[in-house]
Amino acid sequence: MELKWLEDFVMLANTASFSRAAEARHVTQSAFSRRIKQLEAWVGASLVSRASLPAELTEEGRKFLSVAQETIRALHNLRDNLHPEQEAREKRITFAALHTLTVTFLPELLEQVRGMLPDLLSAIIPDRGGIEANLDALVSGEVDLFLTYAHPFVPMLLDPTAFEWRVLGTETLVPVAAPGLGLAAGPWEDGEGLIELAIRLGAPLPYLDYGSSSFFGVALQKIFSRSPGMRWQVVHQSTISDGLRQCALAGWGVCWLPEALIRRDLELGRLVRASNRPEWTLPLEIRIYRHRDTTRAIVDDFWRLIP
Questions:
Q1: Quick one: residue 44, left, alpha or beta (phi over 0 = left, psi -120 to 50 = alpha)?
Q2: Is the N-terminal amide bond of 187 cis, ω within 30° of 0?
Q3: What is the tens place of the pLDDT at every residue in 135-185?
Q4: pTM recorded for the entire structure
Q5: Domains of the chain
Q6: Structural contact between residues 117 and 87, judged by C-beta atoms closer than 8 angstroms
Q7: In 3D, which of 302, 286, 294 has the Cα closest to residue 92?
C-alpha cells in the first residue's frame, strides 16, 4: 500500500469526481483510476460506486475514509516528529492560502497575532491554483490552516464534523479595465459602463480569465450564466489575480479583481470600474479553516488569538 493511494482516495471523496480529483492530484484520469483500484485490491473491498454520477463512496468506502484521513495525518506527523528541527516545528504554522490573500490579508493577520505569539514561525505552501488542490493540502494534513475566500457559488467540500472555520473579514470582486480600453462602436449612454455597452451593441468584450478550476473562475461562471447576452473574448488566462491585474493595467481587457488588491489603482485612475451595477460584483467572505481534532498547541493558540 502506498501513501499516495490514500491521498487519492481522500481527494476523490472530497470532489466526488474522478476527473477533478485526477486533475488536483496532477495525474491522468486513467492513472488515477488505476491507483484507486489498487487501493481497493489492497483493502479487499469496493470503496467507490462507479455506477453513479457524481461518484459516491460505498458503505465500506465511508467507513474507510476516516481511517485514510487519520493515517495520512499520522504519517505526516511522524515524519515531522523525526525531523531534527522538531523544536522549530513546534512553533511553526503552515498555511495554504489563495495567492491574493497572501498579499492583501495574511501579512496583517500574522502581524496582529505575533504581538501575542512572538515566537511564531509561519510558512506558506505554494498556491495550487485550483480550490480542490488547496483543500487537499488541508485534508491530507500537509498544512495546519487554509485561508480562502468563500461564496455560496463555490461549495467547500469539507466535512463540517471534521473541519471548522471562522469568518475573518469580507472582500468584493469587481470588474475593472484600463481607462483606454473601449469598444470600436458607440455611442455611450448615460450611466453606462463598458460591460453594459458591450451587451447593448452585441460586441465581444476582451476578457482576462481565471480558468475553470480556480475559486474566482468557478464563481464568475455563475455570474456570467445569468447574462446570456454577454459575449466574451478571452485574451489571457491565469489563476493569479495579481498577474491578471498587470494585464488589465496594460489594457488587455476586462478583469474581475479584489478591491483590496486594486484600491490604489482605482484611486489613481490606473483602473476604472467596467460597470457600477451590483449584479456584476461578487461579495465574498474571508475564511480560515482547520481540523477540529488538531493536537498541535501552536495551532490552538493561533486559533484562539485570531482577532
A1: left
A2: yes
A3: 888 988 889 999 999 999 988 878 888 899 999 999 999 999 998 776 644
A4: 0.70
A5: 1-82 (1.10.10.10), 171-283 (3.40.190.10)
A6: no
A7: 302
